[in-house]
Structure formats: structure tokens, C-alpha cells
Amino acid sequence: MSDEDLEIDTDDLKRRMEGAMASLKQEFLSLRTGRAAASMLDPVTVDAYGTQTPINQVGTVNVPEPRMLTVNIWDKSLVGKVEKALRESGLGINPVVDGTIIRLPIPELNEERRKELTKVAAQYAEHARVAVRNVRRDGMDQLKRAKSNGMSEDDHKLWSAEVQELTDAYIAKIDEVLESKQAEIMQV
């Protein structure tokens, strides 16, 4: 067995943990903080033409004012479905239909809604932590296989420590990003 077979691909583990971070940051963009952002509508999908389709693929999303979003629907037959998807999205936005344009006034966040959003942010962060831990588990499984294939005890401990160090670093990054997002949400 060559030394290469006994090594763990930490670059792959880093890439996968970085993917969990990128996903978390994308989810955080969908949390509104009192200002309109087109990315708020990214997680909302519409039942269009028999499949779940992101809103930005059935219409143009614009931010004409700091506290207003508009969605210009390209197909008139989808206006009702888009309105329904927006109402049921949990974003706390009340859509106003004007022909093929749906206006989304962004209400001022009250204290209760801010606290709810910080809990949602914490849930997103926990999902990211779980993803990072799953990557860690995969790395540890690779180590077990390598050990059974002849990896020395010292190398196994060294690699285990490296995988754990990587995991701890990404968990700390997730906590840091969560803290700043919660502070941003609670800011009045």
C-alpha cells in the first residue's frame, strides 16, 4: 500500500466545509433586516409549468426603493401562483398585485419579528454546523479505513487532529457569521 493511499484528502474536506459556509451565507441573505434586497426572494419557489421554479425565473425582481420590492411576472397566468407563493413563504410580506407587477412593501421590523428572525438565523447556522460535522464524520471514516489498511497509530492521531482542527475552525466561522447576522437583525 502506498503512502498516498494512507493520506486523507483534506482539500476535499475543506472544500465541502466551505460549501456549507457558502450555503449559510446565501440563506442569511434571504433574511430581511428591514431593507429590501432581491436576494430575499431566492428561497421562494412557484409551482410553474408543473415544477417548482424560483421566482427570479418567472419574472424580474427589482428594488425600486429601499423598502419596496417589485416582481414583474412575464406570464400573466402565473401571477396568482406567485402571489400565493409569496404569501405562504414565511417572509412576512404582504404582496400587492397590480396587473403583472407584484409590489412587496417591506414593513418595519418590530421587536418580536426581530427575535423570530434571530431564531431562524440560529436554525440556519445549526444546519451548517451539522453539515460541517457530517464532513468531519466522512473524514474520520476515511481515517478508519486507512488505519485498517495499514496506517500507523501515530499517523492516524495526526490526521485525526488535523480533521478536528479543520472542523473546529469552520464551526467557529459559522458562530462568528451567526453572531454578526443576529446583531444586524437586532439593530434598530
**Span between N and C termini?**
61 Å
Low-confidence segments: 1-5
Number of strands: 6
CATH class of the largest domain: Mainly Alpha
Number of DSSP helices? Answer: 4
Looking at CATH, the homologous superfamily of the largest domain is Ribosome-recycling factor
- Give the biggest sheet: 4 strands, antiparallel
The radius of gyration over CA amounts to 22 Å
Average residue pLDDT: 85
Task: Provide the domain count.
Answer: 2
In the CATH hierarchy, the architecture of the largest domain is Orthogonal Bundle
- CATH level-3 fold name of the largest domain: Topoisomerase I, Chain A, domain 4
Shape: elongated
Protein name: Ribosome-recycling factor
Subcellular location: Cytoplasm
InterPro entries: Ribosome_recyc_fac (IPR002661), Ribosome_recyc_fac_dom (IPR023584), RRF_sf (IPR036191)
Keywords: Cytoplasm, Protein biosynthesis
Explain this structure.
Residues 24-186 form the Ribosome recycling factor domain. One of its GO terms (biological process) is cytoplasmic translational termination. GO terms for molecular function: ribosomal large subunit binding. With 188 residues, the protein is an alpha+beta fold. It has 2 domains: 9-28 and 110-186, Ribosome-recycling factor (Topoisomerase I, Chain A, domain 4, Orthogonal Bundle), CATH 1.10.132; 35-105, 2-Layer Sandwich (Gyrase A, domain 2), CATH 3.30.1360.40. The chain is built from 4 helices and 6 strands, in the order αββββαββαα. It has helices at 10-29, 79-87, 111-148, 153-186, and strands at 45-48, 51-54, 59-65, 68-73, 96-98, 101-105. The strands form 2 sheets. It has a 4-stranded antiparallel β-sheet, with helices on one face. The protein has a two-stranded antiparallel sheet with strand order 1-2. α1 (10-29) packs antiparallel against α3 (111-148), α1 packs parallel to α4 (153-186) and α3 (111-148) runs antiparallel to α4. The protein is elongated, with a radius of gyration of 22 Å.
